[in-house]
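User: Here's a structure from my thesis project, written as structure tokens. My advisor, Dr. K., wants to see whether a designed sequence matches the one we expressed. Can you design one independently, without my sequence as a hint?
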């Protein structure tokens, strides 16, 4: 807790909080800070491109683009992951941009559904996702080194359980189980933000400078949280309308 002790300073007998120290990250070396800046710059770029891809298909409402996005998503994930030592950074940024665009195209059907219920849900979900993402990121960066890495095996097990539950519910189609799966997915994704953040820091310290691929992990975490929140908020809005009838 020593790193938090200097966040408050005494001035005239009053305790003052300096907001600048939140982003000081004195526990990280200069090269790691620079690496994280590149990672989060890529994440921001990917979010913008995904939003553009989603907006395009929300306007066009193309089934071809939707399913093309699903196929392209896997193609660009493979290209980004496999080209670390064979492609230039600019080419790999092109791959990851394609990945983000395809994920946006794939998400357009969900966005269309949410808009049909209440368009303001998208803004609420995005703002909430941003706050959650930043909060869990800061928690991971200020926590003791490698203290979150133990979550890896737990999260893998939880993901396996979530996959089995989701596949089973494809046959049983129980709405309460489907909603429970979304809540579980949201919790897992929030924990993944902390795990992935600390894993990226440790990889950098071990010499892995692939900020482009590192950004993909956090971008996917962000998108899943955003989607889960949209589904939860839409479900709440629909229940609210039914109860008011």
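Assistant: Designed independently from the structure alone:
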């Amino acid at each position: 807790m020593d790193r938090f002790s200097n966040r408050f300073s005494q001035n005239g007998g009053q305790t003052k909080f300096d907001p600048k120290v939140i982003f000081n990250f004195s526990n990280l070396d200069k090269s790691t800070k620079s690496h994280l800046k590149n990672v989060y710059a890529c994440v921001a770029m990917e979010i913008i491109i995904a939003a553009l891809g989603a907006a395009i298909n929300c306007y066009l409402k193309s089934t071809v683009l939707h399913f093309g996005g699903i196929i392209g998503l896997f193609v660009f994930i493979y290209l980004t992951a496999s080209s670390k030592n064979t492609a230039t950074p600019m080419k790999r940024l092109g791959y990851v941009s394609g990945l983000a665009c395809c994920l946006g195209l794939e998400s357009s059907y969900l966005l269309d559904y949410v808009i049909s219920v209440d368009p303001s849900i998208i803004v609420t979900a995005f703002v909430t996702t941003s706050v959650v993402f930043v909060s869990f990121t800061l928690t991971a960066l200020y926590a003791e080194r490698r203290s979150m890495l133990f979550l890896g095996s737990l999260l893998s097990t939880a993901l396996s359980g979530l996959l089995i539950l989701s596949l089973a519910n494809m046959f049983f189609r129980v709405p309460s189980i489907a909603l429970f799966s979304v809540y579980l997915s949201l919790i897992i994704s929030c924990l993944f933000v902390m795990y992935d953040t600390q894993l990226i820091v440790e990889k950098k310290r071990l010499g892995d400078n692939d900020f482009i691929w590192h950004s993909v992990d956090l971008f996917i975490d962000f998108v899943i949280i955003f989607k889960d929140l949209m589904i939860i908020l839409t479900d709440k809005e629909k229940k609210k309308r039914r109860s008011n009838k």
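When you compare it with your expressed construct, this may help: The beta strands are 8-11, 14-17.
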